[in-house]
Design a protein that fits this description.
six-stranded mixed β-sheet; alpha/beta; 4 domains; 48% helix; seven-stranded mixed β-sheet; 494 residues; Rossmann fold; single chain; 22 helices
Length: 494
């Protein structure tokens, strides 16, 4: 029995004649109540009311479009079961309506045979009647309900079937959507040109992108990068691979420890943001970047209220990954003022109590500015340090970016390029390769080569030179305090 069904049954057993459901899913409420009505009452019926149609089925010749008239008709001749009042909360700012509901409360409590169910997307219960109304949290549909709805729509497309092996993953990916949203999404997927795994999940994540976009401070980050796009960082790769199977509903149901999040710190340009994107791709989860600048801007209310909305929004689309970039600038109490103190406290509490299928990927350039409470064990599973790549890692990075730009790494003198990029970070290597390709294209559209890249390695001054002192501080702090993302045992010289 679902939590919602249990709450309705408890309300009926307690003879609560007025129930308030905060949900936009009117059809789902009506369907569930029709299923459970026989277990709640003898000879149960489920009637509905809207301000345009009145009570259906209509009670005799009564005119019931007016909310007060509708309530009075129920009081006069109630049937066993439920009356689903779909528009009633919109009229509850009227004294007459509140009075009528209170009359219904006293008249119907004694028999315990009739329940009026008020349905609204917003919790708008006037204080004058909140003691008489029982609030029931219907919640969003569970993955099984969502998958069932998807498969029901799929029956209309006999020649378009998603693979059975993807059913469980699709059900989890749909979590956070309503049944109506799944209906529209299923039609869109099944009528599309492709029905492979990538196309299916891209459509689902696109739907979630639309949902979080309404919040204003969450940005959907498309999945494009696999583990093969990460040069080096062997320890971090191993961590991502080993915990993939742990971040599932099956693991939650089995009582297994669920990964909470990782904090990735290190030298600028060494792939911290890349890591967050790769976790998303490898785990097949949508990635949403939290824009703390917008949270703190005041455009969406106080920073505390906006941050709470952001957390509630990300919870509603779980399973998902929330990416907080440069967390030290967002949650450092020393830099954020009083509002920052409250946001910081809310974040700590949420990280301790958050739903299991929300994973936090946070990045930081200057982790020494973060309070110790953030980085202690129990909030983040692991703190990784991304250092400047060593020779072998840099060779791997060069190969990746040459391939990304349409070149063949076998045609390049990689050892020579590794030597000329000593002390470089991954972002600097990428830009040198991109610039080389642009130069070659402008020079008659030819393929770029070793000389093109080398020409740019001579003109670029790496960050390890221009920011030598700052990088030394970061590396000194991280040494012994964080797990090295790379498997190399040596500290690269600065």
């Amino acid at each position: 029995m679902s939590t919602f069904t249990e709450q309705i049954q408890n309300a009926v057993n307690g003879r609560n004649p007025l129930i308030f459901l905060q949900t936009p899913e009117e059809n789902r409420v009506e369907e569930i109540l029709r299923d459970i009505a026989p277990d709640c009452y003898e000879n149960a019926q489920v009637s509905t009311w809207t301000c345009t149609s009145g009570i259906l089925p209509a009670p005799g010749n009564s005119k019931t479009k007016d909310p007060v008239s509708a309530i009075q008709a129920i009081i006069k001749d109630p049937h066993p079961g439920f009356y689903v009042m779909k528009d009633m909360p919109d009229f509850m700012d009227q004294h007459e309506v509140v009075r009528a509901l209170r009359d219904a409360y006293y008249e119907l409590t004694g028999s315990g045979q009739t329940t009026i169910v008020l349905v609204s997307p917003d919790a708008t219960i006037p204080r004058s009647i909140e003691k008489e109304v029982t609030l029931v949290d219907i919640g969003l549909p569970m993955p099984e309900e969502l998958l069932h709805q998807f498969l029901r729509i799929q029956k209309s497309y006999p020649d378009r079937q998603i693979p059975d092996t993807l059913h469980s993953e699709v059900g989890m990916a749909l979590r956070g959507l309503t049944l109506n949203e799944v209906t529209h999404l299923a039609h869109r997927i099944l009528r599309g040109n492709k029905l492979d795994e990538e196309a299916i999940f891209n459509e689902i994540f696109e739907e979630k992108k639309i949902l979080v976009k309404k919040a204003g401070f969450l940005e959907f980050v498309p999945q494009r990068l696999g583990l093969d796009q990460m040069g080096g960082m062997g320890n971090l790769k191993d961590w991502i691979i080993k915990r993939e199977a742990s971040f599932t509903q099956e693991a939650v149901d089995a009582g297994m420890p669920i990964p909470k999040g990782i904090l990735i710190m290190g030298v600028s340009g060494c792939g911290k943001s890349l890591c967050a994107k790769i976790v998303s791709t490898f785990w097949k989860l949508p990635l949403f970047r939290l824009d703390m600048n917008m949270v703190n801007s005041g455009v969406y209310g106080t920073p505390e209220a906006a941050f709470d909305r952001a957390l509630r929004t990300i919870e509603s689309v779980a399973p998902a990954i929330m990416w907080i970039d440069e967390i030290e600038n967002s949650l450092s109490m020393a830099q954020s003022g009083n509002a920052g103190n409250h946001v910081f406290s809310a974040f700590l509490t949420w990280m301790q109590e958050k739903p299991p299928l929300v994973f936090v990927a946070a990045t930081a350039n200057q982790i020494q500015h973060l309070p110790a409470e953030v980085i202690r064990k129990g909030r983040f599973d692991q703190v990784f340090f991304c250092d400047l790549p060593d020779d072998e890692e840099r060779k791997n990075i060069i190969e990746i970016h040459i391939g990304n730009q349409g070149g063949d790494p076998k045609e390049f003198d990689l050892d020579y390029l590794v030597m000329t990029t000593d002390g470089w970070n991954g972002a600097e290597v990428e830009q040198a390769v991109i610039a080389a390709r642009i130069d070659a294209n402008q020079d008659g559209g030819r393929k770029f080569n070793n000389k093109d890249i080398y020409r740019h390695t001579r003109s670029i001054v790496p960050l390890s030179e221009t920011m030598r002192e700052q990088i030394k501080v970061i590396r000194d702090w991280a040494w012994g305090r964080a797990t090295q993302a790379s498997k190399t045992k040596k500290r690269a010289p600065v």
